[in-house]
Structure of Hydroxyacylglutathione hydrolase:
Amino acid sequence: MLIKQIPIRNNLRNYMYLLACEQTLEAIAIDPLDHNLCLKVAADLGWTIKMVANTHHHHDHIGGNGPVIDATGAELVAHTEAMSAIPNVDRGVQAGDSLRCGKLRLKIMDTPGHTMSHICLYFSGTDAEQPALFCGDTLFNAGVGRCDFGGEPKVLYNTFVEQIFPLSDDVRIFPGHDYIRNNLEFTLDREPDNQSALNLREEFKQGLDAESFVSNIGIEREINIFFRLDQAQVRAGIGASALDDQSTFIGLRRLRDNW
Ligand SMILES: [Zn+2]
């Protein structure tokens, strides 16, 4: 699979993605908010956009659909239950469905919590290529999506327990926003001795480019505080309400909302 991660550099620091079949150069555009930039990058690469996939209905993910589809005739794909909120969806998808583009195959995961109808797109990898997760606003580098725009923290926690935590360490992470620097600071606020987070923060200080940094699930288990619910320091920091992993996760989400 050919992957082009495109930073938009807007206030919300959205990422959009182009994923192409290596043989046919037919491509899927994920959440192509900056339509001009998306079309230009595809043209420069010689890729043909055949499909637009939205991870969820928030405007900063669907706002570029119309012009990209007008220019390419691409099929619009989204969660079945997001079809009422996203104009002109051609095909609703649900857990276990596949997206096909040339020889490229992606599996749909149904990952509610940030919104109640959110999909992630999973590439299972090959002998030569590690798996990859295009996770919208469910999982960020060193963080998770907020739940106060139509979501629910308990539901997001269940999504992580059932679908994200069990992923193998080598799954690469391609999120919907570039929030890693703030998220790392939050991890270190909660767990000041986290050596992996300290090391990564130092690498950014030394010039590591956040936009070219690709995390994976193994790294997230170390630097993402929402993966570290059983750590005594993390739990103690929530206080008496942190009775178990679920209440710790929800407590962290609440703290992060106001941080
Ligand atoms: Zn969102």
